[in-house]
Design goal:
The chain has about 160 residues and is mainly beta. Helix content is about 15%, strand content about 55%. It starts with a strand and ends with a helix.
Length: about 160
């Protein structure tokens, strides 16, 4: 999916796929959010490009996914800032939570900055649920399964 962004926009990604967001007007702000789950033997692939083509643009991209069973999650996201795009700000966060020992994930953030006077960063994290979080909820009378469900819901922001 290719989208030209000409005004302040919020986009929620609800399925895997390839996404290109082109910021083609000065001053626009883009917010991209994703919260997906992969189960069974599902392979969830997401590829995203945030392409700043004009100055004074901003983007905040937060990608979250949960993998269970034998699922695989692959997230590739890139911020590209063209030449002559000063005062651009773009931030990318990729977070994957694995709730099964057989689930796998790859998170690959990328930056290509061809302009000066920009603020840009990326972060990626693939982790399991910390056992102390499960223990805490179980010590309050919550079953292990329910504790895991609660943590996943909180992680995805449901």
């Amino acid at each position: 999916m290719k989208t030209k962004i000409t005004k302040n926009t919020k986009i929620e990604i609800v399925e895997g796929g390839d996404y290109v967001f082109e910021l083609i007007e000065p001053g626009v702000n883009l917010e991209v959010a994703m919260a997906l789950e992969a189960t069974g033997k599902e392979i969830l692939e997401i590829e995203i490009l945030i392409h700043h083509q004009k100055p004074n643009t901003t983007a905040n991209t937060v990608l979250k996914a949960v993998g269970s069973d034998q699922s695989q999650i692959i997230i590739k996201a890139k911020i590209l800032i063209d030449k002559n795009c000063p005062n651009t700000e773009s931030f990318l966060t990729e977070k994957v939570l694995l709730v099964s020992k057989d689930a796998k994930a790859i998170a690959i953030p990328d930056l290509e900055i061809l302009s000066d006077d920009v603020k840009c960063s990326h972060a990626a994290n693939v982790s399991k649920i910390p056992e102390n979080q499960i223990f805490y909820l179980m010590s309050r009378g919550v079953s292990r399964k329910k504790a895991q469900e609660m943590i996943v819901e909180g992680f995805l922001g449901k």
